[in-house]
Amino acid sequence: MAFFRMRLKSNALCSTTMVRLYLPCDLPAEVGNEVKGMITLLHGHTNDGDDWVNFSAAVRYAADNGLALLIPDGSNSFYHDMTYGQAYYTWLTEEMPALLKKMVNLPWKREKNAICGLSMGGYGALMIALNHPERYFACGSFSGAVDLQMMLNVGADNPMIQQTFVPILGNELYLPPNRNILSLAEQVSQLPLEQQPKILCTVGRQDHEPYYIYEQNQSLKQYVQNLPLDFHYMEWDGVHEWNFWDRSLVYAIDLFYNNGYAKKKLQDWAAN
After folding, report:
1. Burial 210-230 (b: 16+ CB within 10 A, else e)
2. Which residue of 131, 142, 202, 259 has the smallest Cβ count within 10 Å?
3. CA–CA gap between residue 42 and residue 122 (Å, rounded)
C-alpha cells in the first residue's frame, strides 16, 4: 500500500490544506493489479479527514477492492464557498483536482469515481455529485444533513445553528437551489438515467436531536420517491457514530463497485 499526507497550497482558500491519498499498489492476486476506482471521502462537522483513517477501516476496505481513496479537509464549511470564510467548494471541485492531475496518476474517469461522506460530509458528497454528475457515477451520504433547509428552519433560534451557518450562508441563512439537495435531486432527475449519479443514503433510526438527521433523511426519501432517480435508502438501528459509518461504507462499496462485498464482510464479522 501507499499512503500519502500532502499539504497543498490553495489560492481559493488563501492557505495550505491537508489532502490524504491511499493507493492500493500491492494488491493480492485475487484483487488484481488494476486500480478499479476511487472514492473521495468527506468528513463531518468539527472534524477533519484524519477521522476516516483513524476511526474506520476505510483503507482496508479500499484495499480489498482495489480502490484509491482521496480524503481532503473541509473545515466547518459544509463544503461551500463560505460567505464569511474560505472557498472550499471551489477548492474541492476545481483547484484540488487540477493540482492532483499534475502530480498523481489517479482514475479520474466518471465511471470509476464516487464520493461519500458522513454527517456534514454526507451533505457535501451529494451536493458536489449532484452539481457535477459528469464527474461522479455514484455518491453516498451516511447520516447526512440531506435536508439542510429543515435543519435551518427547526433550529432558527438555536445559537449553535446561527454560529455554524451564518459564516457559510450569510446573515439571512439563505440556502440557494444549487446547495439544496432536494432541489438538486429534482434537477438531476431530468437527466437520462445513465448520466445521473447513483445515490445511497444511510441513516440510523435513533439519530434525532439535535440535528434531526433521521427526519432529514426521511424528508429526502419522501421527496425523491416519485422522481426517476437511481436512489437507494437504507436504515437500521443506530446513532451518529463510527460503527454506523464504517458499516455504511461497506454497503456503498458493495452497491457501487463490488456486489456481494457486504455479505462477505458480514460473514467475516459473524462469530462462528
Report:
1. ebbbbbbbbbbbebbeeeebb
2. 259
3. 7
Query: Using H for helix, E for strand and C for coil, what is the string for 199-212?
Result: EEEEEECCCCCCCC
pLDDT digits (tens, 9 = 90+) for 219-259: 999 999 999 999 999 999 999 999 999 999 999 999 999 99
Angstrom distance (rounded) from CA 234 to CA 108: 28
| CB-based burial label for 62 (10 Å; 0-12, 13-18, 19+) | buried
Q: In what order do the strands lie in the sheet with 15-23?
A: 2-10, 15-23, 67-72, 37-42, 113-118, 138-142, 198-204, 231-236
Burial class (CB in 10 A: 0-12, 13-18, 19+), 54: exposed
Place of cell 449519479: 197
The 10s digit of each residue's pLDDT in 192-207 is 999 999 999 999 999 9
| CA pair distance 57, 217, nearest whole angstrom | 25
